[in-house]
Specification:
The protein is α/β, with parallel strands linked by helices. Helix content is 39%, strand content 13%. A six-stranded parallel sheet has the order 1-6-5-2-3-4, sandwiched between helices. Helix 3 links the parallel strand 3 and strand 4. Bound molecules: magnesium ion. The site of magnesium ion has 7 residues, from loops.
């Protein structure tokens, strides 16, 4: 289970400073969209997200959006942010031969996302640095596709509990995380 522990976590993507990555020699960020940048209901990123990625880019970080969502959904977000993107990415089993990924050096790459079994596992499989953020607004059992989402969260929860309690020694952060997920 500890194989799914992220290398770092932030309570929001807005808390991440570009130096956090550049100090580690990271130059490429693969960033999830749904529930990491915007909620499932939102279509466009807000100004805060636009500002954040501009700031990242100004600090020589190359951002690629990496999403399992559809071309339509991902291209709208990618074009709004003027970023490269990969839709239907197949996380956690991404295609490393993808034109946007073939020149990425795994030791200089980080992945950011809200799900252990997709985002964090992608990083673990490929040797990327991994950053977990809580979902902005998780699906509940009553929502469309909510059941699957809740099952995934149920499976994540014991891993998160061990991670926060044993590795990070932070019961408070576990409680915070648990409050953010839809179960
Ligand atoms: Mg997500």
């Amino acid at each position: 289970m500890s194989k799914l522990y992220p290398d770092a976590y932030f309570k929001s993507i807005h808390e991440i400073n570009p130096e956090f990555f550049t100090n580690k020699g990271i130059n490429t960020i693969l960033c999830d969209i749904d529930n990491t940048l915007i909620t499932y209901e939102e279509k466009y990123p807000n100004n805060e997200i636009i500002k954040l990625f501009n700031y990242f880019s100004e600090n020589n970080l190359s951002i690629i959006l990496l999403s399992n969502n559809s071309k339509k959904r991902v291209s709208i977000v990618g074009d709004s942010l003027n970023l490269k993107y990969i839709y239907n990415s197949g996380k956690p089993f991404i295609k490393k031969k993808h034109i946007l990924l073939k020149d990425v050096n795994p030791s200089k790459c980080a992945v950011i996302g809200d799900q252990l079994f997709t985002d964090i596992l992608t990083g673990k499989i490929n040797g990327f640095y991994t950053v977990l953020v809580p979902p902005i607004k998780d699906r509940t059992i009553k929502d469309k596709n909510g059941l699957l989402s809740c099952i995934k969260r149920l499976l994540e929860l014991p891993i998160l509990k061990k991670y926060f309690y044993k590795k990070m020694n932070s019961k408070e952060d576990y409680i915070y995380w648990k409050g953010k997920i839809g179960i």
